[in-house]
Amino acid sequence: MTALEQVRKRAEADAKTYGYYLTPQPDLLQGFLEGLKINEDRYGYPLCPCRLASGKFEYDRDIICPCDYRDPDVAQYGACYCRLYVNKEVYESKNLPEVPERRPLEKQARAYGIEAPKQAPPQGTQEKPPVPAPATTQAEKAKPEVKKKLWYCKQCGYVVFREDPPYICPICKAKREMFAEIESKVEFNG
């Protein structure tokens, strides 16, 4: 079992490392920390407390807290999607912004076992969430598989094995565009 104080210390240390703050609202912060603890106890890794998880590491990798979307969200809106991490301006004003979901629909759909919508609804309208179809053996076999690739940061050399490169390099803060796929070929001599 993960102690709540460990979760808090880890979040505080991560925030400090990147120049962020934890949400200035004590009740909200307590709820986020409890959600992280519950998710870590349940799944074995600290999933974002404000998103639904599949419980399959390869599908959830992008939403392990701090999620892949935190840094671009804080840069653009001053806070991450769930508003656990905020910048100095938001922390001091205590005015938490609304942050839209940045996680691609395809990843959400795959994690939830539903078919991804073909296109986004027109701006200003709300689409009803899709209803998951009952799982069958054949449907399970038809689920798309995560195709992992090796990516490296052209700026610092950081290498990662995952479906997509991170939005921001965790080492040097280079943008996603600075990542390139490492292609390799294995030949067996007989």
What does this structure look like?
This protein has 190 residues and is of the alpha+beta class. It folds into 2 domains: 113 residues, Ferredoxin Thioredoxin Reductase, CATH 3.90.460.10; 44 residues, Rubrerythrin, domain 2 (Single Sheet), CATH 2.20.28. It has 7 helices and 5 strands. The strands form 2 sheets. Strands 4-3-5 form a 3-stranded antiparallel sheet, with no helix packed on it. Helix 1 packs across helix 2.
Jot down its keywords.
Ferredoxin Thioredoxin Reductase, 3-stranded antiparallel sheet, Rubrerythrin, domain 2, globular, 190 residues, single chain, 34% helix, alpha+beta
Top CATH class of the largest domain:
Alpha Beta
User: How do the SSEs run, as a string of H and E?
Assistant: HEHHHEHHHEEE
CA distance, first residue to last residue: 50 Å
How large is the share of residues in beta strands?
Answer: 5-15%
| C-alpha-based Rg, rounded | 19 Å
